[in-house]
UniProtKB/TrEMBL annotation:
Pfam families: FabA. GO terms for molecular function: (3R)-hydroxyacyl-[acyl-carrier-protein] dehydratase activity. Belongs to the thioester dehydratase family. FabZ subfamily. The gene is fabZ. Its EC number is 4.2.1.59. It comes from Thermodesulfobium narugense. InterPro entries: FabA_FabZ, FabZ, HotDog_dom_sf. Gene3D superfamilies: Hotdog Thioesterase. NCBIfam families: fabZ (TIGR01750), PRK00006.1 (NF000582). It is found in: Cytoplasm. Involved in unsaturated fatty acids biosynthesis. Catalyzes the dehydration of short chain beta-hydroxyacyl-ACPs and long chain saturated and unsaturated beta-hydroxyacyl-ACPs. This is 3-hydroxyacyl-[acyl-carrier-protein] dehydratase FabZ.
Length: 141
């Protein structure tokens, strides 16, 4: 298991954009599973929406991307560098995510052909699929 300080040693993101609190499972070059506790105190929920807060779908994509980025950077021994988005495909939002939910994101390596890495990603709440997407990253040398 990797905790927030371990994650910050790999990913360049910082509060409020660091959306992964723990990496629960890691199989380099295969898959990673991460966790995000959605809180009413998260700054992006203040205006989304004031009387009915909903975790933004685009931030679900970002949270999955951070798990995928962690997986790709650790797998390729590139900790501390940046994995840049190059595409998001087949994104689907299946259910609403609210404060109090625990988002479990999984990234699976689909293809690595440097400098690109393709991942199949899912996000679940209570074992129910809430978001999925294919994410592609560019990894500079």
């Amino acid at each position: 298991m990797y905790y927030i300080n371990d994650i910050m040693n790999v990913l360049p993101h910082r509060y409020p954009m660091l959306l992964v609190e723990k990496i629960l499972e890691l199989e380099p070059n295969v898959r990673a599973v991460g966790l995000k506790n959605v809180s009413n105190n998260d700054p992006y929920l203040i205006g989304h929406f004031p009387n009915d807060p909903i975790f933004p779908g685009v931030l679900m994509i970002e949270a999955m991307a951070q798990v995928a980025g962690f997986l790709s950077l650790v797998s390729l021994n590139k900790e501390g560098t940046i994995a840049f988005f190059s595409s998001v495909d087949k994104a689907k939002f299946r259910k609403i995510v609210r404060p109090g939910d625990t988002l479990i994101m999984e990234a699976k390596v689909s293809k690595i052909k440097l400098p690109f890495c393709k991942m199949d990603c899912t996000a679940k709440v209570e074992d129910k699929l809430v978001c999925e997407a294919e994410l592609m990253f560019y990894l500079p040398k």
